[in-house]
Design brief:
Blueprint lengths: L2 E2 L5 E2 L2 E2 L1 E2 L4 H12 L24 H11 L4 E9 L6 E8 L1
Antiparallel strand pairs: 1-4, 2-3, 5-6
Length: about 100
């Protein structure tokens, strides 16, 4: 099923969507999962990343979580890096489907 693009935006008076099975579709699903803490998604209170700061979470734990919720994906690698200038964590996920 196609999904509504997030953040919401319109093109020609229609909501922008991502077609199921496209890179944009899966990039959005993974992005949402990485920005969701357990308990925020009412339909599955376990959904999300347990350490939203990514400071105490291993690459393997994130890979395991994403692989569990998105069985159609093969998560090849997860890399967490810290941006020295902003102190933000950058999570890079490589996957295939």
């Amino acid at each position: 099923m196609d999904t509504i693009a997030f953040p919401l935006r319109f093109s020609n008076n229609h909501l922008v969507t991502h077609a199921e099975g496209t890179d944009a579709y899966y990039n959005q699903l993974l992005s949402i999962a990485l920005q969701t803490a357990p308990g925020e998604y009412a339909l599955d209170v376990d959904f999300g990343i347990k350490d939203m700061t990514f400071t105490n979470m291993s690459d393997a734990a994130i890979k395991q979580t994403l692989s569990f919720y998105y069985k159609e994906l093969i998560v090849d690698n997860v890399r967490i890096a810290k941006d020295i200038k902003t102190s933000n964590h950058i999570v890079d996920v490589s996957y295939r489907y």
